[in-house]
Amino acid sequence: MTSLYHLFPSTIHPMVVHFTIAVNYLCTLGGLVGLIWRKDHFWGKLFFLLLALGILSTIAAGAAGVISESYISTRPSGIEPVFHDHKTYAMLTGLFQVIAIAVQSFSWWRTRSMRVSFWAFLLSIASTVCVSMAGHLGGTMVYQYGFGVH
């Protein structure tokens, strides 16, 4: 399996993860606008689509992280707790996104309205906080520890 991983460049994770971060922030922003302008169903639809895109891009970023990690032969001293927390926040990002889309879908099914669900919006905020923490820890690993830098 390692040989298949190496079909991608070692920098695949930083190339993909920035899209995930941007989509996550845009999703939360779209949800906020949708809560403010409740009558315009465009924002509810956009929120849902960005949640779905966020889930897909989070999966892609996680897979890219596994690929990039496979290129690393040594780990700097003291990085393990930071690396563990980085992965944990990344998984929580995806978990909050999946729960948010489920809540949004249930809300639409129950009310037959394309409005943004307040609870799904709160979950998208939690996802945005988690992706921010994962990004902060990823930056810490690179800039403080030199992790993944050749």
TrEMBL record:
Residues annotated as domain DUF2231: 10-149
Keyword Membrane among record annotations: yes
Sequence intervals crossing the membrane: 15-37, 46-68, 88-109, 116-137
Alphabetically ordered keywords of this record: Membrane, Transmembrane, Transmembrane helix
Top-level division of the source organism's lineage: Bacteria
Transport as UniProt keyword: no
InterPro entries hit by this protein: DUF2231_TM
Name of protein: DUF2231 domain-containing protein
Protein source organism: Alicyclobacillus fodiniaquatilis
